[in-house]
Amino acid sequence: MPSLSGPLDDPAADAGWRDEQPRKGFFTDTSVCIGCKACEVACKEWNAIPADGTGELLGSSYDNTGALGASTWRHVAFIEQPKKPAANTVSLGMPSTGRPGAALDPDSAIEFRWLMSSDVCKHCTHAACLDVCPTGALFRTEFGTVVVQDDVCNGCGYCVPACPFGVIDRRIGEQGERNVGIAQKCTLCYDRLGAGMTPACAQACPTESIQFGDLDELRTRAAARLESLQQQGVTEARLYGESPDDGVGGSGAMFLLLDEPEVYGLPPDPVVATRDLPAAWKQAGIAALGLLAGAIAVFAGRQP
Q1: Same structural domain for residues 128 and 164?
Q2: By C-alpha distance, which of 109, 166, 115, 158 is closest to 138?
């Protein structure tokens, strides 16, 4: 298990790769996501993932898949929230045919906005799912990503509660269906990367909301995009997952958000679940030694 004491500059090399490639990842700019779900469809088609939620809206939004899971490796969230009118809004007095509710008191009207975001596995620098896997089914690739080997996973499920983002899960379905009962998640299209191709979701995104590339370059691009939005007055914009000093050592998938992470269903301060294991084992060892010393003292005191 890699050291959790600080940032890992090169997780692939730490995993033993000697011919590792530049670390790859995603930058998802939610400010230009239109919620088309092309990324979801492309992901399912390329990776032969079963359909889920087809034609069934959740009732709480226009979403139909709900969350990331074993059969949803990309998930587009639709978040409806009241929109505060801009302070510099000016009426141009243009003629119009009117709209429903236009005659109401302006103070009683509520404007809404959609926050749309395509979520995905974070491919953490310190990946708890990888740390707890007892069979080695989860491994770190030469691109710094984390992938499940279908033919090695025994379906124990240890990785499921270990993930701080709730990404990985075991596939549910009829016996005999593909990969039922084993852990599944985004591979960042490992097979495509090996062939020099772009992941299917990024290839399909029509607005370039999902950007793929070298992680260092994406961090620079994300910082520039954030600065541009804030200069335009979008002060609530922020980056998520870009810092190598966060609780997972930085993510292989970062996001530009237009509100707090909790609004998008993301933990505000994710921490790798195995972070405290070394300290816990140390304390357990000290306690065991104490008990052993006490037992020895008791038996030694009984000697004639």
Answers
A1: yes
A2: 158
